[in-house]
Structures are given as C-alpha cells and as structure tokens.
Amino acid sequence: MKPVYEIQHNFDDFRLLEELKSQDATAYSDEKHGSYDNWKIINQTLRWAEREMQFFCNQFKLPYGSPRYYQLDANSVLLPHIDYNTTCSINHILNDEAAPVTFNDYGEFTYNTAVLDTTKMHGVNNLGKKNRYLFKISYFETTYEEIIKCLQN
Question: Which of 17, 40, 108, 115 counts the most CB atoms within 10 A of its CB?
Fold first, then answer.
C-alpha cells in the first residue's frame, strides 16, 4: 500500500494561514531527531486549526487528532525521517507550489490534502521553493489503515 492517500476537503486556507503567520514559529525538536532550525512548529493558539480539525473529523467520523502547523523554510531540506510518536497524519498544504514529500521506498508525492503513513521514512526537498506551510492533524494511536477505512466509508 502506498504511504500517501489523497483526499478532497475544503479547509479554510485563508484563516488557517492567517492564524499560522500570526504566531511565533519555533524550531522543531524531539528526543529522537534533535532540533531542526529550518523545520518549525507553530502550536500556541490553534483556534482555527482546532475548529477545522473538529469539522473535518466529524464529517468523516474520524477520531479527533492533534492539530498543529509546520513551516519548512524556503530553500531548505527536511531530511528523511520517521515521525516521532506519530502513526499517521492528515496533511494539508497551505501554499501554492509546495514541494512534494518523498518516501524512500515509494517515490515522490505531490498533494494538496492527504493522509500520510508517517511510520515510513520520508522527507521534503524544498530547494528552490518558498516557505512550505502545512496544517497537520497528527494521530498517535490510530493507524494509517484505520484512517483510510473511515474516509472510504
């Protein structure tokens, strides 16, 4: 099974991006990977992110996940990794012409909104591109297959 499952959903990109840009981004850091200066997390005030996550999950009868924003700096690379303590995520790109995600054993995937199997090695080459803005709903126990099954029903 390929590690990216594309879906169609009309998130409120304007308000999500506005909320993301109104906050301070901090370098992402975890126990397994250390810190990344070019990969930033924005998770202080998530009023719109929380609202959009609840609406989306209710619509598809999904369990609630954990919403957050990420920014990959322009002209930088997010090295191949497996997400820390995350089984899968729903990723929604908030800007045009965003770099695709590359899964080591599966190739490159360009998407607007998709479920990603974050237990598989993946990264993003954002060289020659502007900042890449991402709205993400992370799941810590629900599997990639379980989320896809809910979306298909």
Answer: 115
Distances (CA, A) of 83 to 19, 26, 40, 122, 129: 24, 17, 14, 9, 23
Q: Which residue has the tokens 């379980």?
A: 146
Residue 47, judged by CB atoms within 10 A of its CB (0-12, 13-18, 19+), counts as exposed
Contact 43, 51 (CB under 8 A): no
Three-state DSSP state, 72: strand
pLDDT digits over 79-135, tens only? 999 998 999 999 999 998 889 999 999 999 999 999 999 999 999 999 999 999 999
CA 121 vs CA 72, 107, 153: distances in Å: 17, 11, 28
Strands 113-116 and 88-93: antiparallel
pLDDT 10s digits, 128-141: 999 999 999 999 99
